[in-house]
Amino acid sequence: MTLRTAALIAGAIGVLLLAFGLIADAVKPAATASPTASLDTPVVVYTPDIVALAPEGSIAVAGTGEIKAYTARPVDADAWIASVPATRVTAIVDWDTLATTAVGLRPSPSPAASASPSAQGSPGASASTAPSASASASPSASPSAAPVEPLLDVWRDSTSARASYTVAVASIPTGLTLVIESADGTNLTATSMEISRIINDTWISNVTWWGIALTAIGLVALVALVIDIRPVQSKGESWLAQRSRIGKGLGAASPGSRRARRAEGVAMPEASLDNADDDPPPPHADSGDEPANRDATREDER
User: Fold this and answer.
1) pTM, two decimal places
2) Residue 127 is inside which H or E element, if any?
3) 197, 199, 196: which is closest to 168 by C-alpha?
4) How many whole angstroms separate alpha carbon 17 and alpha carbon 1?
5) For the chain, how big is the Rg over CA atoms in Å?
6) Which stretch of DSSP H or E encloses residue 70?
7) Which has the higher per-residue pLDDT, 249 or 98?
8) 191: which strand partners?
9) What is the chain's mean pLDDT, rounded?
10) What pLDDT score does 271 carry?
């Protein structure tokens, strides 16, 4: 199998890996989830242990009118909730669903009692007495669905919003219960929590980068099929073969190269190391005969 064929096969594998990595990245779940629960009460309660499940998330409640939210100690919140119809969030079932339970005061059914005694007597003669007594009692116990007005000394913090209310979990003091109610007593419609989840997607990036690298190799091989690179390849192979023969001592070196000069025995020039002080000094222009010559010249001038 030639190098070009291997590169083409690597490119095909790279395309598959790249496609797989892109698809996996597109379908991976989001970094946050929002489990939701529907409501049919005017009050919803989040206890401290449920709030702690989403330390970096948020809590949201939807309704039709004004919505008020309070925080309180669990014992104070439970005492107030006992007198109103409420829903308590108890767990996170999965990434899409919250578990809830009904708490507080609930309306009871209306009992109805009816008694109709009837007595008839005919002593001897044709006399008929038909006393009829009918008693009906229908007591009805239906407590008001509107929440009790909160006591100011029970709640730590309070806020309000219109139609929907959202609060960051980080802003709720640790250990306190969150109580959210409809101000006009109408039922709230839904509540949700935004929670973070850890997604192990490191392998997706690794597969994607490997796919990119192998695809690039295959692309180079594909371009080589279109462009004739045989002359360049031939020169490269000849150069490698020549280098291999020279290294094994089987071929001659290129003319003018250092290997060729060494083979010809060309010697390096030798530098002279003789001491310059041993050479005779050059004749000085001002020799000892100069004063005599000067005297002779002066005598001639006279």
Assistant:
1) 0.53
2) none
3) 196
4) 23
5) 53
6) strand 58-72
7) 98
8) 37, 61
9) 75
10) 60
